[in-house]
Amino acid sequence: MVEMSDKKIVDLTSLSDDDNKEEEEDVMNLVSPDTTKGGGTVEEDVDARASRLRDQLAARAKSMRHLVNLGKEMRRGLVPGGRQQQQEEEVGVVAEHEGGSLASEKDTPRDQKTEKSRAAEERKLERAKLAEEKKQERAKLQEVKKLQRQVLSEKYVLKFIQVVMTPELMSQPLGLAIGQAFQKTAEKAEHERISYKVASIEQYGNHPMLAWNRIEPDSDNGGMLESEEPFAMICLEGKDMIEKIGNGWMDAMLNGVPQGHRVHILVHRLEQSMRQREAEDHREAMSQNSLSQAPRFMASSVENYMTSLLVERADVDVFDASSLEEASNHVLAITRAIAMRHIDVGSGAKYLQGKSKRRNGSTNLETLLVSRPLARDDMLYPIRALCALPSIGPVSAHALVEEYTSFKGIFEMLDDPRTSRIQKEKELENMVGSNGRRVGPKAAKQIVNLFSSEDPNTQLTDSQ
User: Fold this and answer.
1) How, if at all, do strands 195-198 and 224-237 pair?
2) What is the pTM of this model?
3) What is the number of alpha carbons within 13 Å of residue 120 lying toward its C-beta?
4) What's the whole-number average pLDDT of the chain?
5) Which phi and psi (to 5°) does residue 141 adopt?
């Protein structure tokens, strides 16, 4: 049986073949008898034991060299798959003889994760992704709701309108001036900005024009819907207008207007251009000594054409601007007017909604009518009209109509010559509404000022 050291195989790699040979030679020298020394003879049993010891040491040295070489090959990774398995079996046999065991371990990187941890990480990322998608969806929905509230607000009308200017218009000084006016609005508050783009207008062809698009929030898809407004504007210099009237271009253009559309004609310096054209014809006639001949151009012909156009075409209007600034301001005004047409119903509803204007605890007119119904249905209309006046809420309007039944009754009270203006204001001021509160001096003064005024342009404000 070969005896082995308790050290691991990897420790044997530190030994060299020369060290093993020196150790073998030393042992051989120690146990080998010196037959020449002392001149005596050695017993046979000593020779036999020495021979057996030499065989054991030789076998041990051979095993040690084999293990050392095997450890070096394993350390350098030079052992192939089949050879490595064979060497491991041999090492296992040797270890089994020694009562030990050798186990191979595979080293793994520190950052490598187990299958379980990777699955948990994937689930975590998926949950985070779903949470982010829900967050974005909620934000998108809130933005759509915000836009839907703003789309019917008079304050934000310009936010939902876009002006389309043709490249032909942008190539002229008039178009550049209008574009600069739009760019200046970008310096203002968000609700006062006007957006525009340069693009062709298919239904009108390649002409110096501009049109308007309506942009509204799409509650279904969360985006914005773009639709064409039934308006267009032809923008021309004065001299071009005179030329296009003479060659029939203007008639052909207006006859091609889609049904239901309205066309605005913006002319820059038409009056000046006509006077200049007349002066040029007059100078040419003088140079040819033909003053007796009628001038080739007459401003009255253009004026007559424009007048007949306004009379015969209800879908056409004309504006003559004396300067580029005036022309730009006209386009801005038309843009706002087109945007405002979508909230006309909303504005009426705002004035007729019958909400109290007090800061704290507004009272709804419909709730008031349930608790105190009117004697006649036609009494509701003067109540709604009174609610539209500054400083007059549903309770005060309800009390006034209950007392005087109609506007006619209010006029008769105010026209009564037996009472002074101050007495009439006091009578209205001390009138008590359904909530036990008086109409008040401010509302009473508003009513007297409005119904007693003979000026049709009278305006009432909260400060009155």
Assistant:
1) unpaired
2) 0.48
3) 5
4) 75
5) -65, -40
